[in-house]
Amino acid sequence: MSGVLVTGATTPLGRALVRSLLDDEGTSAVLAVAAEEAWPFEPDDRLTYLRVDLTRSRGIRQLLFGPARDLGVTAVVHSAHHRRAGDRGSRVHRLNVESTRELLHLAERHPTIRRFVFRSYAAVYLVDAEEPTLIGEDHPLNLSPRATQQDRDRVEADLTVCTRMGMAPLHIVVLRCAELLAPESGSPLWDYLQSRVCLRPLGYDPMLNVISIADTVAASRLALRTESQGVFNVPGLDTLPLSAAVGAWGRVGLALPGPALGPFYRLRAALVGAEFIYSPNRFRFHYSGVLDGERARRELGYEPHHGIDWPVRTLRSAPPI
After folding, report:
1. Relative to the CA of 170, which of 154, 194, 202, 239 has its CA 20 to 30 Å away?
2. Does the pLDDT of residue 112 top 70, yes or no?
3. What DSSP assignment string belongs to 131-193?
4. Cα(25)–Cα(1) distance, rounded to whole angstroms?
């Protein structure tokens, strides 16, 4: 590695990735980019932090052909994404999708950038009763017109990057990561578990797989070094039923008929400003979907080692698949 540009650098994941890169003597420079003005890092001669609005094409162009070129950036790790699931509109779409398209477009013409790592999501996959529980990289994507804008944007951004593989003069890696169970990460499950009583549909207890910040950082670091290209599923260490996740979080679980959950969680969102809405998550609360990480293990050398710090250790996590 040489110079690395990290977008979304002030999120918990972004901060951890920047710190990890700076701990590596092989990193000559880190260009950390986010929308916040505050400086969130310890001083380091190799670190440059810039406030950049990625929804504006001019800002991206000035970033790449200004500081990124001057610092000799050779790789981009793009993980900036709007995190509030209920937000929608053109500005959200510009950050989620158009910024990815513009970064790719300009990186292909950049004098020093050679590698593009895109952090995608397991949520791009279709989960329902007719699909396999074990999800490989060739699993169908969620192209439902009833999906939320967040899910549609995630699929569009993922496919935008995938269509450039083999066509762009870049080494492109897409990491479809399990749900990051951490605050300020846009995780629906995180917000769901903040309730003292967590409701689930009666008669269903799907298997979940969640990933920690440490393992997501490890996968990103491996993607910066690999000679392989393409899409890689990145599972976490913890695989467990929804009811067990509720218990491990120290919450009370209650099973109710599915039709009652939608109105309840809409009311909760309206009263306390919560983000979790049941309707977009109803399929994953009925049917299991666990990432198959065999390709990442074989070609990236990735295996999850860091589990979630569950408040209540009621069980041992199942081994990753």
Report:
1. 154
2. yes
3. S-SEE-TTSPB---TTS-HHHHHHHHHHHHHHTTTTTSSSEEEEEEEPEE-STTS--HHHHHT
4. 9
Q: Tell me the three state secondary structure of residue 78.
A: strand
Return d(Cα 60, Cα 57) in angstroms, integer.
5
Confidence category of residue 36, pLDDT binned at 50, 70, 90: confident
Reading the block at residue 172, the tokens are 């492109």
> What is the model's pLDDT at position 37?
66
pLDDT one-digit tens code per residue, 142-175: 998 888 888 899 999 999 999 999 888 999 999 9
Residues 80, 34: Cα–Cα separation, whole Å: 8
Report how far residue 215's alpha carbon sits from residue 304's, in angstroms, rounded to the nearest whole number. 6
Q: Whole-angstrom Cα distance, residue 37 to residue 50? A: 8
Domains and CATH numbers, the chain: 3-300 (3.40.50.720)
